Amino acid sequence: MIIVMKAGSPEIEIERINAELSTWGLNPEKIVGKHKVVIGLVGETVDLDPLQIQEVSPWIEEVLRVEKPYKRASREYRHGEASEVVVSTPDGPVTISEHHPVAVVAGPCSVENEEMIVETALRVKAAGAKFLRGGAYKPRTSPYAFQGHGESALDLLAAAREKSGLGIITEVMDASDLERIVEVADVVQVGARNMQNFSLLKKVGAQPKPVLLKRGMAATIEDWLMAAEYILAAGNPNVILCERGIRSFDRQFTRNLLDISVVPVLRQLTHLPIMIDPSHGTGWASYVPSMAMASIAAGCDSLMIEVHPNPKKALSDGPQSLTPDAFDQLMKELAVIGKTVGRWELPVAAVV
Ligand code: PEP
Ligand code: MN
Fold first, then answer.
1. For residue 342, with 0-12 CB atoms within 10 Å meaning exposed, 13-18 middle and 19 or more buried, which class applies?
2. CB 210 within 8 A of CB 168
3. What separation in Å is there between the alpha carbon of 305 and the centre of ligand 2?
4. Are 93 and 62 in contact (CB under 8 A)?
5. Fold (CATH) for 2-15+22-65
6. Which among 120, 274, 293, 350 would be 20 to 30 A from 244, CA to CA?
7. DSSP 8-state secondary structure symbol assigned to residue 177
8. Phi/psi of residue 307, each to 5°?
């Protein structure tokens, strides 16, 4: 249920309403949007009468029920307003949201050594990326495949962060690593395989860094939003949804089926920002540029692209990784589409 306050409602009145509702055993949550303040009520609200709440204050504009099973993740919960995930990076805050330029995340699948991660960071930054991605802990189908360098790779990410100024995105697989990951990461990634690891979701929801929640490979959109709800319910409002392809019957030519239709669908259902990962989505570097362009045209808020200095030698996901040169070229192509849809950061001199 949400309580929509009238424009210009005094702060003291909002506090009074919250205090009153707390005495009813409710847990009101104040949500400050660009245009309106909304008070969210999640929990035992089925027996509540909206009219009774309406009477609590003349500053209440309306009281609406959120019918969806995902409450906090639903678009209605913020009365239709998109949320803005503001990530602090060494170079300054980067906002990932529907009303901001597309934020590009790039980097290797795994952090392999200092030289490659620093080189990749500097190259992707020069091309316009805002975040460096790289796995320290890797979820691999085979226990015999490279599992990531673990904690020592986090130190390498910290070095790349310092040298490049980029924000860092890296995956947590085990809650026992979370504390150490949070020291280095600007955004904590929950991978496709852990999308429904509910105890992990509660823990990433209880730490302060924004969370990138990848879609499970066989997750419906509702499963995915319910997973986001776990993080929001645990107190972390900064969740970014990342589509990375789902399993289909045909894996002959693509690794996954990249579902770009999630962009307009999620836009309707949720206020959370949307990232697309065409690298895992297709599995092949040659398909990444067209899918990245299509994602921007569809209206995504962010892109994740795997880039490796020498994809042929990569310890994981080489076939889907772009070289730094190919990434440079791609960013030039993306700029054309990004500018056309009004979602590309312009050089300072070009801002009028
Ligand atoms: C990754 O981003 O490297 C990764 C393992 O992704 P996913 O969880 O989407 O497979
Ligand atoms: Mn990968």
1. exposed
2. no
3. 9
4. no
5. Alpha-Beta Plaits (3.30.70)
6. 120
7. G
8. -135, 130
Residue type, 107: G
Q: Which long-range contacts (CB under 8 A, 24 or more apart) does 207-210 make?
A: 207/178, 207/182, 207/236, 208/182, 208/236, 209/182, 209/185, 209/238, 210/85, 210/87, 210/186, 210/236, 210/238, 210/239, 210/240
Domain definitions of the chain by residue range: 2-15+22-65, 85-345
Tokens, residue 272 = 């959370």
pLDDT in tens, 281-307: 999 999 999 999 999 999 999 999 999
Query: Which residues are near ligand 1 (CB < 6 Å)?
Result: 109, 135, 139, 191-193, 214, 244, 280
CA distance 283 to 257: 10
What does DSSP assign to residue 196?
T
Q: 85-345, superfamily in CATH?
A: Aldolase class I (3.20.20.70)
Phi, psi of 57 (to 5 degrees): -155, 140
Average pLDDT over residues 129-138: 98
223-250 tens-digit pLDDT = 999 999 999 999 999 999 999 999 999 9
Relative to beta strand 131-133, strand 2-5 is: unpaired
Spatial distance between the Cα atoms of 188 and 208, rounded to a whole number of angstroms: 10
Among the listed residues 286, 287, 302, 295, the one whose alpha carbon sits nearest the alpha carbon of residue 105: 302
Q: Are strands 37-40 and 2-5 parallel, antiparallel or unpaired?
A: antiparallel
> Phi and psi for 195 in degrees, rounded to 5?
-55, -30
Probe residue for ligand 1, chosen from 109, 149, 244 as the CB with the greatest number of ligand atoms within 8 Å: 244
Secondary structure of residue 11 in the 3-state scheme: helix
Given the CA of residue 317, which atom of ligand 1 is nearest to it?
3
* Cα-to-centroid distance, 316 and ligand 2 (Å): 6
pLDDT above 90: residue 88: yes
